[in-house]
Design brief:
about 80% helix; about 450 residues; mainly alpha
Length: about 450
């Protein structure tokens, strides 16, 4: 009988690729997985409902962040940046240069990387920065699939390679801690060395996306952007100063209290008190912001229920054990199957941070049995956990870029974000991770 994890994830992916809405695909996938795993309809729905609360905090965080982003747009800060970029575009058209394109790609790449360590706000920067720049990106005829790949690279590669910010949580507190918990001596393991080759695979994928796959121009409808995103916003030094203070306060409070909800709320209140956002307009503005982030919130809530159903079936462990039985004594086959299982599980759960503890408990003893070194074991478990974060319909590393690039309805979540990031990152990550496991 087919494994419940394979049935659930396969159903979700097929429906998503068929342009069924992601939320519906996740719910149907969860039902198929639960029934295949023998839970029955009642137990499946109970598990799904019990998991919904796990995504509520993230959904509320993004809703408040959307309201905060609209307030920033009202202040004109992001549009001031966009206006400067637009002037550069006009000059570029006169001189025939292409430096603005690379400047904007580099800006989004750097900000995405910084969002994981220097200022660990994860995808919070996207609704603040990307929509105001969308008009400029469209005038340059930049392929939004390229921008999605650039941002997803910045959201994933730093945490799987650099042990600072979110990387400290993933590499030290989750990966190394769970490998050690399973009985492996990690005292001599350099986690950056262990994850170096897999991270290089991500770099290769990025270079292919930038210089090969999406280097050609792509035309979008400027009128659609103008209807949803104000391209002419009035601002002055006072509004820009207040916006700067609000952003600084939001980020400081978020880092201090570890709460995106309180941080975004504080920033929004600063705008209200300053008068930039008039008190009588706060209801409409707040609603507009929540609408902007509604899809990502509902997908995160549904994916939490989906993950809970997968765990309730108990077939994640069954899938891993079945793979172990198939491996025999072949290290090459073993490493490949473990990475493929990690890809499948992470695409279903949508979070590499949640996947590693599940995989480590069973993969580590198997790796020891096959004779892998501690360095190779850390590499296999870490890569297996990171695989699928790019390319999962339910991952915030794909949902985040879509939330910024699709405000005018011209960027499809599955075909313009999920499929490109899956092809450009999961395939090289699988290849480089396997090679690293065999050579470390």
């Amino acid at each position: 009988m087919i494994n419940a994890v394979i049935a659930a994830v396969g159903t979700m992916l097929v429906l998503s690729l068929s342009r069924v809405h992601v939320v519906i695909a996740i719910i149907v996938g969860a039902l198929v997985g639960g029934l295949t795993g023998g839970l029955g309809i009642d137990a499946t729905l109970k598990a799904f409902n019990s998991g919904l609360g796990g995504g509520a905090t993230v959904a509320l965080s993004y809703a408040l962040l959307g309201a905060f982003a609209v307030a920033i747009a009202k202040s004109g800060l992001a549009h001031a940046l966009a206006d400067k970029a637009l002037l550069l575009v006009d000059r570029q058209e006169a001189t025939g240069g292409s430096h603005v394109k690379w400047l904007l790609i580099g800006l989004l790449w750097v900000v995405a990387i910084a969002s994981q360590n220097i200022l660990p706000i994860h995808i919070a920067f996207i609704p603040l920065l990307v929509p105001p720049l969308l008009y400029v990106l469209t005038k340059l005829q930049l392929d939004r699939r390229l921008i999605a790949c650039v941002m997803t690279f910045g959201l994933i590669t730093p945490y799987m390679f650099l042990p600072v910010g979110f990387g400290n949580i993933f590499l030290n507190q989750i990966l190394l801690a769970n490998v050690a918990k399973s009985g492996v001596d990690i005292s001599q393991v350099n986690v950056t060395h262990a994850m170096g080759l897999p991270a290089l695979g991500m770099v290769v994928g990025l270079l292919v996306a930038v210089f090969v796959s999406y280097r050609k121009k792509r035309v979008y409808d400027l009128e659609k952007i103008e209807r949803v995103e104000q391209v002419a916003v009035h601002y002055n030094p006072l509004t820009l100063l207040v916006a700067g203070l609000a952003i600084a306060a939001a980020f400081i409070i978020q880092l201090w209290l570890d709460s995106m909800i309180i941080g975004a709320l504080a920033g929004f209140l600063i705008f209200s008190v300053s008068g930039i956002v008039r008190w009588r307009d706060t209801d409409d503005l707040f609603t507009e912001g929540m609408k902007m982030m509604a899809m990502i919130g509902f997908i995160m809530i549904a994916s939490s229920g989906f993950a809970e159903v997968l765990k309730a079936t108990g077939e994640v462990q069954t899938l891993v054990q079945a793979s172990a039985a198939f491996i025999g004594h072949s290290r090459g086959v073993g490493a490949l199957l473990m990475l493929l299982v990690g890809l499948l599980v992470t695409m279903g759960i949508g979070s590499s941070f949640s996947t590693v503890p599940i995989l480590a408990a069973i993969f580590v003893p198997l790796c020891v049995q096959l004779g892998f070194s501690p360095l190779a074991i850390v590499c296999i478990v870490g890569t297996a956990g990171a695989l699928g974060d790019a390319g999962s319909p339910a991952s915030d590393s794909t949902l985040g870029p879509t939330s910024g690039l699709n405000i005018d309805g011209q960027h499809h979540h599955i075909w313009d974000t999920v499929v490109p990031t899956f092809l450009h990152y999961n395939i090289p990550l699988l290849a480089f991770g396997w090679f690293a496991a065999m050579t470390l």
